Amino acid sequence: MQSQDVAQRSAASPGPVVDVEQAEAALVEHYPRLVRLAYLVLPPSLGRNRRVLTAHALTQRALPRGRRTATLIPAQATGRDGDLGYALVRLQVVRTALEAGVPLRRAAWPKRSQLPPLLPQVWGLRLFPRSGGADELALDQRLSALSAAARAAYVLRGLERLPESDVRKVLTAAGVDDPGAALKEAGGVEAKDALLLSPEFDPCSLHARPTDLMRRRQHMKAALAAGVAAAVCGALLALPSGGWGPDGAAAPPYAQNPAAEAALDPGRLTRIAPTAWRSSARTDFSVWPARGNLAGDTALLRRALAVWARPGESVQVSATPGTPSGAPAGPPQLLYAGDVDQARVVLFYDGLRIARYAEPRDGTGGAALDFARVDGATGAEAEALVLDRADGNVRYLTAPWVTKAAERDLLKPTAGPTPLTLSADGVSTPLAGPAPTGSCTSWNVMEVTDTSGPHLLTDLGELIPAHLTSGPPAAPHEAAGPAALRNWAPFACSLAAVRSEGVRSVNAWQYAQQPLPDASGQAAWVCTRADTWRGDGTRVLAQFHTPGGPYGAVAAKAQNSPACGPRDPHVLAGVLWKSGTGDWYLLAAGSKDTASISTTGGVSGSARGALLAVRTKQGDQAGLEGTLTDGRTVSGLR
What is the pLDDT of residues 52-68, one digit of tens each? Predict the structure, then answer.
């Protein structure tokens, strides 16, 4: 059970003890931000490739070794949204990043953080973040001139938004001898907090380039010769007298395959007629027509198909989790080929996947190939594809049956939509993307309208925007109505936790309302469930929202759980809450068919019905058990 009001605790109170599971959950949820923090604190002299790998290694090793961590000082416990687990792993990341910058000495045994990381490792490639502009370059140069402690002070103050007093305490806990001097040195660099969120300093969004090819070839030749000799000798000794053995009905190696050749022929691409969707009973990608001003450019289509079949080393390839990236089994369907901003973009559909090929207008260097699963997509799930992202904006290709599109900010449910223009080919004008990682002052979504009404789609960093719904799991409805928009507003920022996870749809269900013990109003309990295209990897969050609060707080979470879904439309979760009078309570709520709730662990209490409120103390840990009206038991999400 996680305390959601840690920020209100007294600075004189002893620090709490954090479970390793709580620290792990915080590390997974805030991993991109923690890696960015490590990357900024690490010395630039490491080089961009090693700096990226070291940042990931330090963050992945930030979990405590035992089941329970040491007591935290109050400054350390100031985490994101009061998350103690985040405060703990952030401190460990800062500490090890500072250690990594200490020069090796002959008389002292090196610490693990001072050595090149064992994991992660990427062979044959150099990884580095995207290049920024002149402002980012200037800031990086200024930070490189600072001491490690001053860099940490600057980043904690600018990226984490900690007050100076808390920065001092975190630096002290991380082993800095003179935090005051570090803060003074950091104060000499102009505060440019927005630049710290730039892609220039994002070690989770990377470019890849080959290492020294000539040197690598020389080393590989000797290793390859020895490996081949050993493999041949070992295989001949292990096989029976028949040698390598027959391949059955397989053709000889390197034989030409008619189906594979047909898949690379732009003349055999499937092209759907522009009006086919009007008479079809289907509303999916199979009835999208071929559109775009370059749909007849044979050379472009040939290049796109060839790269799909065998992408070269310079091609940036990405795929949503669970999506195969191999060549098509036969001629795919052409959805779009055209000029989009500064690129030429081609979209294909092979019945299982969307493949997006993009190349610059002035050549083929820096081409990209992206894949996303769309099997079973229909209706709102097949109404838009991402064509391009540039300067924080997203441009979509919409289905031919979409009549209009608009932009909405989920954090402003009462604000009207801003219309987007659709071209004759269904290409939208640029839409401001959701809030970048680390900030959430807005969350922009696209509202598309067809003959059945409006639907909300949100960009989660993939080719297919996720479909947003609201209501009970057994009968969710579109999230575009006024009530659903109000329901989604406090929880929109939690969508950042499922970026790049292959999410198909996200449903928000308000399953309970609970009167607060100090009579300050009613709190809302909302369960958000993100389902994926591949089936597994679902993410369930139980969130708690007090009256007047701008955001909901994550009370519990689960991975690959049927809870809050159509197969198991039940949920039970609890939270430690501090009242306006300073009293602490364990509040818990289950779905409406919950007959009783009881606690386990350090808190004793029970209640009939779906709501529980028990007076407790700060830092207490408890579990929840519920009984449904049909006699079955449910456990609380953790």
Answer: 889 998 999 888 776 54
